Amino acid sequence: MSSKESILGAIQGLKLEEKPLPDIPDFEIADDLVEAFTTALNANKGTVASKEEIEHLISETAFSKIYSSSPAFESYSNCQVPQHAAEFADLDLAIIEGQFASAENAAIWLDDSNLDLRAIPFITAHLVIVVKKENILGNMHQAYDRIGLTKSGFGIFIAGPSKTADIEQSLVVGAHGAISLRVVLI
């Protein structure tokens, strides 16, 4: 018997008393989840906008390529999901639905069930995510409980536009993804 086998055998032979895991308290952060979400999103360089504000943005801005999978904005979509993400390299505006959000840090959950193409939130110049107000949760503990053990090939929390900083801490917004994030709460 090798030393590895003897060590593993000794460990397996131990009769340890099972101890229950500690209870995790519910860390509620605010009474008004919409207000807390808005504050966190603003801190992340994103903004909450109304449906009318997004419609005005679309009418006043020369977006040549707009994609929407959100029923609330589908009339503005002027392109279909391509076979290859590279065909969306010039996507100006994407409007998608978020499943739920955390008021704690404004993180919005997206997965394969609401993303027709995984690259959409990253490849578009400007991103709009539509979230139902009743789907704003207090914190990330509740968010992970909501995800649970769902089987999805892809999932991500997005909490603002793309941001990066160099060694001198010069913040650059939009370097690796969307330049702006607007969230419509319905």
UniProtKB/TrEMBL annotation:
Q: Which InterPro entries match?
A: FTHF_cligase-like_sf, LUD_dom, NagB/RpiA_transferase-like
Superkingdom is Bacteria
Domain LUD, chain residue ranges per copy:
86-186
Q: Please report the name of this protein according to its UniProt entry.
A: L-lactate dehydrogenase complex protein LldG
User: What organism does this protein naturally occur in?
Assistant: Algoriphagus locisalis
